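From the methods appendix. Each design record in this collection lists the tokenized structure first, followed by the designed amino acid sequence. Records were kept in a plain field format so they could be parsed without special tools. The example shown here is representative of the layout used throughout.

RECORD:
FOLD TOKENS (346 positions):
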């Protein structure tokens, strides 16, 4: 079957085409580009008291992934920037000596640019992970790491999200000297290619009558969890929430029921047992859980790879299933209602 066409034979959406491009556009970063080595070398020569990550939407989810990579491999505390502190409250942060990382597909949202300029003026070293290396956010930064995903036309970002995560992992591997992560990245293009053939329609079909949906995971998978929840809301117009498996056991658990299917993502690392236990407990309570990874997995998967790389690969079958479900419902995955490709906020 042509991966760029849904079963109806209709022309492929941009979202489908761009998801299919993921293995190809991710390969250079997975191999360790010169830009990655250059930026990592600059960071390795400095000592930072902390790292501040700035991004919204899908780029913010990439920032969550980067946070776990930095904190687990370099031991540096990572904080999320609140751009409105600069643009709304006019209170530039005191970040002298820190590393400030802005993650953005377009690099054009005024609030992200303003936050980056304020961080640089406040004495932080600023780094932009952007798809447009000539964008205002890139121009406002001391260092630029292009993610190299190429043009993306669908409003629902796919390949730019994957490459933002890949660039984050490649940077963390080179900066920290993590050879195992570098080897996991080297194997990732093949896993991304094989992930294109995984069918997660059992999960999306279960969402047909759902008033809401939940996505859960933990650790390195949390950024992916939140990204998939966003795509459900954006593309299927379905209220969806992405929670850490630890957080879901608290207040949010009260709103999870047999009517609200749960997608559980599980990578093989020290937090896996907690995700497995949560899935088991939810099933015992009559909740429909679709799990990827581990012995209790119900969705097609590739088997365990590197635990920081598997959450990247899990995006691919999720994107494909969401795109196909949108088309089945008569929705346009390329142009969700009320949204534009570049969202500019202050």
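DESIGN:
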């Amino acid at each position: 079957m042509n991966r760029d066409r849904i079963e109806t034979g209709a022309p492929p959406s941009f979202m489908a085409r761009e998801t299919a491009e993921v293995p190809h556009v991710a390969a250079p970063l997975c191999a360790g580009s010169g830009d990655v080595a250059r930026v990592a070398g600059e960071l390795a020569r400095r000592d930072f008291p902390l790292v501040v990550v700035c991004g919204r939407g899908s780029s913010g989810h990439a920032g969550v992934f980067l946070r776990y990579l930095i904190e687990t491999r370099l031991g540096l505390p990572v904080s999320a920037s609140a751009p409105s502190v600069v643009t709304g409250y006019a209170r530039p942060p005191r970040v002298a000596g820190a590393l400030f990382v802005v993650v953005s597909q377009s690099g054009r949202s005024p609030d992200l640019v303003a936050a980056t300029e304020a961080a640089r003026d406040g004495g932080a070293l600023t780094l932009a992970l952007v798809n447009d290396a000539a964008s205002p956010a890139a121009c406002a930064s001391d260092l630029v790491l292009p993610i190299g995903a190429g043009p993306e036309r669908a409003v629902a970002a796919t390949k730019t999200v994957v490459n933002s995560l890949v660039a984050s992992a490649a940077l963390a591997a080179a900066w920290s000297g993590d050879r195992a992560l570098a080897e996991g990245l080297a194997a990732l293009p093949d896993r991304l290619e094989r992930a294109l053939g995984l069918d997660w329609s059992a999960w999306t079909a279960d969402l047909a009558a759902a008033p809401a949906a939940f996505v859960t995971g933990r650790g390195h998978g949390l950024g992916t969890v939140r990204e998939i929840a966003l795509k459900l809301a954006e593309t299927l117009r379905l209220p969806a929430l992405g929670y850490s498996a630890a957080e879901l056991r608290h207040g949010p658990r009260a709103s999870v029921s047999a009517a609200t299917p749960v997608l559980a993502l599980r990578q093989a690392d020290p937090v896996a047992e907690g995700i497995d236990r949560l899935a088991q407990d939810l099933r015992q309570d009559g909740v429909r859980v679709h799990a990827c990874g581990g012995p209790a997995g119900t969705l097609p998967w590739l088997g365990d790879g590197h635990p920081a790389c598997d959450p990247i690969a899990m995006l691919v079958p999720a994107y494909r299933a969401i795109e196909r479900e949108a088309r089945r419902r008569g929705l346009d995955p390329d142009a969700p209602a009320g949204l534009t490709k570049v969202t500019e906020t202050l």
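APPENDIX NOTE: Strands lie at 51-54, 78-80, 99-104, 125-130, 143-146, 213-217, 240-244, 262-265, 289-292.
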